UniProtKB/TrEMBL annotation:
It comes from the Bacteria. Residues 1-95 form the HTH arsR-type domain. It comes from Candidatus Danuiimicrobium aquiferis. GO terms for molecular function: DNA binding; DNA-binding transcription factor activity. This is HTH arsR-type domain-containing protein. Keywords: DNA-binding, Transcription, Transcription regulation.
Length: 110
């Protein structure tokens, strides 16, 4: 049972592990957008974007609705931004430690 829980968590995190997918999520933070709009804003091929959108939709991160021939995407659960904020904070701390180390290295006399 525990193995299945870890697999589900890993699959969810894997869905977040591509820069285009993160860009899509961030862009949709303020509301829904059509696939065409996302293609224009992100500057990616529609077929490439469609694969990424499908992954995010399958993981329950995005919601899709169709209006005639246009498909619109939106964030399914805004709690995803809590996850992304936590990741950003971890990365900020890591960067801060690296900066402090670099400053110390810069002050050493050779």
């Amino acid at each position: 049972m525990d193995d299945m829980v870890f697999k589900i968590k890993a699959d969810f995190l894997k869905a977040l592990s591509h820069p285009i997918r993160l860009q899509v999520i961030e862009y949709l933070k303020d509301g829904e957008a059509s696939v065409g709009k996302l293609v224009n804003v992100l500057g990616v091929e529609q077929s490439n974007l469609s694969r990424h959108l499908a992954i995010l939709r399958e993981m329950g991160i995005l919601h899709a609705r169709q209006e005639k021939t246009t498909v619109y995407y939106s964030i399914h659960d805004h709690d995803i931004f809590k996850v992304l904020r936590s990741i950003a904070e971890i990365l900020r701390k890591k960067l801060s430690k690296s900066e402090k180390l670099l400053q110390k290295l810069g002050k050493e006399k050779t």
